[in-house]
User: What shape does this take?
Amino acid sequence: MSKQKLIISAIVLVVLLIAITSSMYIVNEKQQVVITQFGRPIGEAVTTPGINFKTPFVQDVNVFDKRYLEWNGDPNQIPTKDKKFIFIDTYARWQIIDPLQFYKRLTNERGAQSRLDDILDGETRDYIANHELVEAVRNSNRKARVTDTLTEPSSDTLIDIKVGRQKIEKMILKTANERVSDLGIVILDFKIKRLNYVDEVRENVFKRMNSERFRIADKFRSEGQGQASRINGGKVRDLKTIQSTAFEEAEKIKGKADASAAAIYAKAYNQSAQSKNLYSFLKSMETFEKTFDRNTSVILSTDSELFKYLKSNK
Assistant: This one.
């Protein structure tokens, strides 16, 4: 009998331990708990950390995260008000603020993500479709600043916006929070992560940008060729001017030199009758050398200075 009592006591002890273990649960700083009995919530949600108890085998512990949770939107192709098709990728951060209401309406985080998909994607589509592309891209009215040296100077200013991207995000956030107000959650932030043209439109935009760049490059090339022609023309003109000036200066120098030489010769040969005759003879011989050859025929007057030398050689 003592052995049977010992076995029974051990069994009872094990059952008690299992009961105590299954009735106790721990909530940490990152968690909040809703207790359900046969699928229906019992009492208030437990949001403070610590050790808590429940009815074993009957009640279940549903744990929800107390921290900020992420939501990533499904990238969508959306038309804007001015009929521009763009590709938009969004994200948001949300939090469970009423776990009991959250459990009643959404059951778990998967249900919440699905509901947020419907709400945030829908609001994004509505607000983008009601605004022009420039409103979704820009945040403020600012002056265009050209930083590309290959871009033509332009006096055109950017189109003024009335709303802007940040305000659109805030409007989406506000409307979405109104729609989730009875779900036990709050959307903390919503942002457009990436915005771009769809592939077909983007390809056309790139082609148009390339064409514009080629046009600008051709314009610069044409201007460069014109400038090169002007520089070359100026160089030729300056060269001819320099050559003409140098030739003129050389002729002046030669003229002065010839005049000086003639004056020296005149002074040297004008000292006596013999020197004058010698000078006349030398100049005549120089003329003969430069003028006549074996095949030259001339007709001279008897009064010519050259004739007397030819006559004397006859």
Remarks:
- The CA atoms of residues 248 and 254 lie 10 Å apart.
- The chain is about 55% helix and 20% strand.
- The mean pLDDT is 83.
